[in-house]
Here is the input.
Amino acid sequence: MSRLPKHTHEAERMGESTVIKYVVKRIVLLLPVLLGVSLIIFSIMEIAPGDPVRNLLGPDATEVQVEQLRHELGLDKGFAERYTTYVVNALTKGDFGNSWRTGAPVWDDIAPRLPVSLRLTTFNIIVATLLGIPLGVYSAVKQNSPGDNIMRVVSTIFVATPTFWFGMMLILLFSLYLGWLPPGGIFVWKGYILPVVCTSVVAACRIFRMTRSSMLECIREDYVRSARAKGVPEKVVVYRHALQNALLPVITTIGNTFGGVLGGSTIVESVFTLPGLGSLLVLSIKAKDQPTVIASVTFLAFFFALVMLLVDIIYAYVDPRIKAKYEKAE
Amino acid sequence: MLNAIREKSKSKKHVKQSPTRQMFARLRKNKSSMISLYFIIFLVLFMIIGTFIIDESLVYEQTMDRKLPPSAEHWFGTDIYGRDIFARVVYGARISVSIGLITEIIATLVGGVLGSIGAYRGGLVDEVIMRLTDMLLAIPSILLAMVVVTAMGANATSLIIAISISIIPVHVRLVRSSVLGIADRDFVEAAKSVGMSDFKIVATQIIPNSLAPVIVLFTQGIATGMLNAAGLSYLGLGVQPPNPEWGALISGAREFLRTNPYMSIIPGIVVVVTALSFNLVGDGLRDALDPRLKD
Here is the structure.
């Protein structure tokens, strides 16, 4: 794939207002994504065999009890009616229904857990990016050096390591043997260290691999050779000519990795017993608490969508072609 | 001299080889991939033969030999119920690797059909398939799997369905873009112009030519499927104990991390090595199928 040099005349003519319009358009597009996500979750619950109310009450419940609870939970209404009511309530009142487990509004369970999840994921993505990109650049520039080889082996191994097991090994080493860090909970700030390491190392390895291969591709491009030939200092060649162009696929990888991080938060929060959205999700799946499951997954998907939005904005900022395309479309 | 001539004739032969043979020749040069491939073959053989040698009673029956560290008698030690961990890992391989394989076969077939229909037909069909794929991709895959598990209950069958559904969108995307790249090529147009039916064009022209990235994704997807299944089982949302699925097995050892760490360390290493092997074979296949991508 050939890449255009960064500064084109078209891009320079672009005003701030076009970028803002682009951002606004993308934010508006978040809503259909969320509607789609909740519709998919609703549909899966609807299509799946088995009766959720019967599951909830167990095999010993009488038909009358089942029907009564079904009515109480509003499950005797049609699919379309239930879904529209849910969406309208969620959007207008922030009401995600009541938990089948506690009977209290789902929001009461989610609200205190949001900051924990947000903090964890933000730390994760910062650490993973700050580790992954520089190491990837180093590895590509010093291809086949001992450092490159070691990092390639290490990253390949980590990508194949199950998160839960890596977390257990971290607890074993740093909490049980060395006693440096708590094995779980967030009563002290140190509690965040192991979970963040557990998730971000694997994420960093994915970013590292992408940065490395993308950089290697760019380093071989003609414009890099031309820059070197006309005597541009090596540092400028690497960071300005090669890295800026190599970053595009890396940004996409960071976005996707973030999806993995959000999904993996269910496992990490369970391993380290953290009170976040992920552990709430696991808890409510076990309790067959559908409203909480729907809301937690929607919230996690919302975070994911926000990050992908951010990725797109950064993309538009880094890649003048996107801005140019948008300007043409107008 | 003679050797030099032989070498020459060999290299000439090499040129005439079919693309498949060339691919295998390239793959054979990749050491880490070949070692991994041998390991996978060994593992699969062991899964089949091992279950004949090792009595199934060792996997489930409780004995008095509780919490014994690894020894000549119990290679991986024994667990809290006195069950031999080595036997459990061998039987667990059957479950874990099969789940990875089955989910990946389902996802490849469904994703392949949907992706190629979308790419080849275009228009409304393509639009519907792609919008649905986009929506599914908006949910991180393991969460999507969890939603399915919530709806269907935590057991092996729903785990397989859940993981397949969660990875289908990735396959749809890949196959679609791969087919799109091929559908415009001259030989497809030639096939159309001689009056070949759509089905025949897809089956004989497009599929064989767009297989390379699918094969790579398939190989590495087995590892992903296996790891995701292990993750869900670890959380208690997949295969249930006492079945020795790897995630469930390590989950059971969690309580004894402090007192008997070998119970979780050794099975974990087996999981890592297995997943690593599938990934490395996938890497090797990618390099072998598309030499341009090789560094």
Notes: Chain B has 13 helices and no strands.
